[in-house]
Amino acid sequence: MSPTITALYGGLLGLLYIALCFQVVSHRRRAKVGLGTASDTALERAVRVHGNFAEYAPLFLVLLLAAELNGAPAALLHVFGALFFLARVGHAVGLARSSGTSFGRFYGTLFTWIVILAVAVTNIWLALG
Description:
The chain is mainly alpha-helical. It has a single domain (4-128), classed as Membrane associated eicosanoid/glutathione metabolism-like domain (Four Helix Bundle (Hemerythrin (Met), subunit A), Up-down Bundle). The protein is built from four helices and no strands. It has helices at residues 4-31, 41-69, 74-97, 103-128. Helix 1 packs parallel to helix 3 and helix 3 packs antiparallel against helix 4 (103-128). The longest helix has 29 residues, at 41-69.
């Protein structure tokens, strides 16, 4: 069995990661900051959006891969993948627009956690079942 579902969402998340990288570079050029953030709030937000994505996406993909390799239903894997992708887009848009609370940031974070929890529980269920 080939992990094509994980490959799909890995590809989509990889494209999103590159888009977030470009945002950081764009803000760095605008602020003329090569290292750090120089207390530029827009650059700080872009760096944190990128960093936050890099903190959550690898764990999600490992969990998704394990679930796929252990026979989780394809429809369930697609639900996990699509929700995680949308959650990360929502988080990125929400945090990029405001350092404070925002709809996208709140629900993006909430659904990121819910999906990771759901995939983790699915893996435990598959491993024990």
